[in-house]
Write a structure and sequence with these properties.
Radius of gyration: 21 Å
Strand order of the largest sheet: 3-4-5-6
Distance between the termini: 46 Å
Helix content: 55-70%
Structural class: alpha+beta
Number of helices: 12
Length: 288
């Protein structure tokens, strides 16, 4: 179907019309035109300085891409998410909900570049524990990734691409940056699905090391984690501090996004994410 730019621009202009029948007609026409107009809409969005117009265009882009994102996510879950690389693919796919024109390969290349920058220093050091310290120092000191305590529930803190761009996010997303770099550098960093506060784990023959990603990669003890849980009215159990599966991590990332949208009263977005969560949890159940 050929696309007339002036028609699309007119449809965007009419998004401000308060008449419900007009709105229904506009949305139907956008759906007829389909995803082919996404680049055009993205350009219009970037050209306007009016935030309400940008918001309206973002909503249209979201509606146009939702179906394909859900289809791709379903395919990915059916193929299996059992490695750190597949988890990275899943999280970047979810980012397309926020940024329909996202080039996921661009963010993979950013992570590749980070790994190349620190790779030689890590590879030349024979100590497994020192390798851990080098990567943590690089991520949290040199790259300055940090927790966003001020706007903790902002959805920007829960999307991988936004965390990479802004260098701040939730504990689990900061952990993902470390874990995805560690995969490229062949280091044994993994996630710990501790209640309330996601943690990092570094596996080594002498015993696993627990790391707090929200506190600049500080090493913590089991006792400190148990004290944290007790202080938050949770009875600590050994399974709270074991290595999480990729599906458990993915489910938690989706729940965080659902919570962010619910806080902003964007319940339709939360409901769309519920579809992804249901798929992930069913896959997790069958894998046990």
């Amino acid at each position: 179907m050929s696309v007339n730019e002036s028609e699309v621009r007119s449809l965007v202009y009419l998004l401000e019309d308060p008449d419900p029948s007009v709105q229904d007609g506009i949305k139907s026409r956008f759906l007829e035109l389909g995803e082919q107009i996404i680049p055009m809409l993205d350009r219009f969005k970037n050209e306007t300085n009016a935030e309400h117009e940008r918001t309206s265009i973002r909503e249209v882009m979201y509606e146009l891409t939702l179906h394909s994102v859900l289809e791709d996510f379903t395919d990915l879950i059916q193929r299996g998410v059992t490695s750190r690389e597949e988890l990275e693919d899943a999280l970047l796919l979810i980012s397309r909900l926020e940024e329909p024109t996202l080039r996921t390969g661009e963010y993979k290349r950013k992570l590749d570049q980070f790994a190349r920058e620190i790779g030689p220093e890590i590879s030349y050091n024979p100590s497994l524990e020192e390798k851990m310290k080098i990567l943590l120092r690089y991520v949290f000191k040199e790259l300055r990734f940090r927790g966003d305590a001020k706007n903790y529930h902002n959805s920007d803190n829960a999307y991988l691409h936004r965390v990479i761009d802004r260098r701040k996010g939730l504990p689990i997303m900061l952990s993902m940056v470390v874990i995805f770099l560690a995969r490229r550098l062949h280091l044994p960093f993994y996630g710990v699905n501790m209640p309330i506060h996601f943690m990092l784990m570094y596996q080594r023959p002498g015993g696993n090391i627990l790391i707090d990603p929200f506190d600049a990669g500080r090493i913590v003890s089991t006792d400190q984690c148990y004290y944290f849980l007790k202080r938050n009215s949770i009875d600590p159990r050994p399974e709270h501090l074991i290595r999480a599966t990729e599906l458990q991590i993915l489910a938690r990332c989706i729940r965080n996004l659902m919570h962010s949208y619910a806080k902003k009263d964007q319940m339709e977005r939360a409901q769309d994410l519920q579809i992804m969560l249901d798929l992930t949890e069913r896959a997790e159940e069958t894998s046990e």
